[in-house]
UniProtKB/TrEMBL annotation:
Domain of life: Bacteria
Name of the protein in its database record: Membrane protein
Higher taxonomy: Bacteria, Pseudomonadati, Pseudomonadota, Betaproteobacteria, Burkholderiales
SUPFAM superfamilies noted in UniProt: TPR-like
InterPro entries: DUF924 (IPR010323), TPR-like_helical_dom_sf (IPR011990)
Organism in which the protein naturally occurs: Caballeronia novacaledonica
Pfam families in the record: DUF924 (PF06041)
C-alpha cells in the first residue's frame, strides 16, 4: 500500500473498500443510491474534509496518484451527496476535472488498483457540460471495458453524452443553478427525470 495522507486513505477505504476487504475492487451499491441518511452520514464523516477541498485545500494530495483520486472522489462524488440539490454540489467540478485530466494524461489512471478506481477517475469527464469532455468520458469508459471487461458505467456515459449533445447542458441542473428552462428541456425532464 502506498504511503499517503491517512485522510486520503480514509476516503479511498470508505468509497472503494479497504485493500484487504471483500468489497475492494467491486462495484458498490451505495454509489448509485440517493438516500438522505447516507448523505447525512457522509457529511458528518467527511464534511469538514470536503469543505477544505472545496476551499482549494489538500493540494499536497495532488502529488500522489491515489491521493489525487481521493481528492477527485471528494470533489466530484462527496460534493453531490453532501450538497445535494444546491449549487455547491457542482462547485468543484472544474478542479475535479483538471485533476482527472492530469491522471489520464500521465497514464496514472491505468495504474489504479482496480477497474472501479479507474472509473472514478473518469467520472468528472462525464459530469462536465462540454461535448469534448463527454466524448472523452465515452472513450475512457470504452477503453475501461476493453481493458477490464467492466462495462456497467459505459451506458451511463453514453446517455450523458447524448444529453449534452442535445442540450449543451444537463437540464436537471437548471433549477438548482437558477438557469432558465427551455420547453424542450422541460419535456425531456418530465420523461426522464434527469440523472
Amino acid at each position: 500500500m502506498t504511503n499517503i495522507d491517512p485522510r486520503a486513505q480514509a476516503v479511498l477505504d470508505f468509497w472503494f473498500g479497504a485493500p484487504d476487504s471483500a468489497e475492494f475492487g467491486t462495484e458498490r451499491k451505495f454509489w448509485w443510491k440517493k438516500k438522505r441518511a447516507f448523505d447525512r452520514m457522509l457529511t458528518e464523516r467527511f464534511g469538514a474534509l470536503l469543505d477544505e477541498a472545496q476551499a482549494g485545500g489538500l493540494q499536497s494530495w495532488e502529488s500522489e496518484p491515489l491521493a489525487t483520486l481521493a481528492l477527485v472522489v471528494l470533489l466530484d462524488q462527496f460534493s453531490r451527496n453532501c450538497h445535494r440539490h444546491t449549487p455547491r454540489a457542482f462547485a468543484s467540478d472544474a478542479r475535479a476535472l483538471a485533476l482527472a485530466r492530469k491522471l489520464v494524461e500521465t497514464g496514472d489512471d491505468l495504474r489504479m488498483p482496480s477497474a472501479f478506481h479507474r472509473a472514478f477517475v473518469y467520472m468528472p469527464f462525464e459530469h462536465d457540460e462540454t461535448i469534448e469532455s463527454q466524448r472523452e468520458a465515452v472513450r475512457l469508459f470504452e477503453r475501461l471495458k476493453d481493458d477490464t471487461g467492466v462495462d456497467s458505467m459505459l451506458g451511463y456515459a453514453r446517455e450523458h453524452a447524448e444529453v449534452i449533445e442535445r442540450f449543451g447542458r444537463f437540464p436537471h441542473r437548471n433549477r438548482i443553478l437558477g438557469r432558465a428552462m427551455s420547453a424542450d428541456e422541460e419535456a425531456w425532464l418530465a420523461q426522464h427525470g434527469g440523472f
